[in-house]
Give the backbone structure.
Amino acid sequence: MLGEFEYLILSAATRLHEGAYGAAIRQEIEEATRHRCSIGALYTTLDRLETKGLIKTWMGDPTPQRGGRPKRMVRVTATGIRAASDFYLVMRRVSRGVSWEANRIAVR
Amino acid sequence: MGGEPNRGPMMTQICWRLVDILSRMLDADERQAVRGDLAESGESIGMALRDVLGLIVRRQIGLWTDWQPWLALLAVASMAGVLLSRILFRFNVDLSQQLVAYQQYGVHFGTLLTPQQDMAFLLSLAVALLVWLWTCGFVLGSLSGGAIWLTWSVFYLMVLDSAWVRFVLSGNIIVRNAGPLRRFMAVTVPLNIATLLFLLAGLCGAFLGVRRRVLALRAAYVLASAITILTILTTWMSGWYETAHEVWSGGAWQGVSWPMRLLPLVLVSWPVAYVLATAKRRNTSDKEIT
């Protein structure tokens, strides 16, 4: 089963679609978690996800905003989407009836 | 108005330069991607340094989850390094005895062998050391990859220091009072040209090992043949000293038998088996592809 951080990356990359690359995924995660995301953790986890066949990465085109340096582009594979949705379903099942789940609607 | 100098731009430039230097420990593609991410996110220099260092540490730790760097560290850097240190120590002592005796008195230092025998032994041992060290360096580089900075450091210190540290600990060598800088230099800097040359051979081998990883099959065969011949030659020639001492002592001196003389040299030579095995495997897989 996926780890928590792996799920965050897969979710962020899926939401970003064609615009999924290192810095953008990092920003998505930081906005969602409201915690800093280290580059070290991100890139090592990207490697792990790629080894598992859950994502594909490649070097994109350089841009002036990045000082002429290329991006590491990310695309979630079908296997990755299945793994992420399985993780989400497990989280929903295991959270049924717990207090923070019940309070979710009240917080909204 | 006086007060603190403006450190901002200069200090920032220096720190970003440090980030660039540190990021060279990463693969080329990853280095570009990370530097681009840092430029895009506009992070402070402190955070950027922390991020880059964090990634480098993770990558380095990740290297050690494979068996290759461990084999390099234990079997090459440590085991072969210690044995090479002893051989190198003996070579340095024998060579310096002959050089001093010749320079100061114009005579051959008496070892119960003829000058020609001593010269032949020293020459074969010198060539053997060059080849052993180059091969160990190559295998170190080939196995270690990105971890070469650590494994080479261990190998270097083992070869340079382990023999004479043993003699210091056993009391055979007395270290005179010396300042910390002299002690540090004594431990880290080769004290003679011969040692420097041998270690340079090892370093050249390590560079090539990191870049090429596998030798061509023909070169591997040549290397294996050379090491086999040199190992046999050195074992045979070292027997001259044993025989001479036995004769001189009237049998009281029990010389070291040839298997015991051969064993450490075989242990030092094992990396050539790895070179040959990897060269053969690549040759086989290249043939299958074509």
